[in-house]
Write a structure and sequence with these properties.
3 helices, transmembrane, 70% helix
Length: 94
């Protein structure tokens, strides 16, 4: 059998039995590799690591320094929300 038979090079009309068998075997190998790659990408640990990296990129520069503007923005938003809740609680007690 030839190890260089690809499914796109082999057709049922022009191939012999050995070429077809090899073509099917190679296709199965490629499909198996693709499934393994997809399983690896969708593994919960891989998804968590990807989400963590994406979240870190929001507040940390590639060189490891913090993005001060973003941190200040998030802090300001948190402070405004806390002030709004406090104001609502104070008004509801009157």
């Amino acid at each position: 059998m030839s190890s260089s038979v690809y499914t796109s090079d082999v057709t049922v009309d022009t191939a012999n039995r050995e070429q077809l068998v090899e073509s099917i075997r190679l296709r199965e190998q490629r499909l198996s590799a693709n499934v393994d790659e997809l399983v690896g990408r969708l593994h919960p640990k891989a998804l968590a690591a990807q989400a963590e990296a994406q979240a870190k990129s929001v507040v940390i520069n590639p060189d490891g320094s913090p993005k001060v503007e973003r941190i200040a923005l998030f802090g300001g938003i948190a402070l405004a929300v806390a002030a709004g809740i406090t104001l609502a609680v104070v008004k509801s007690r009157r």
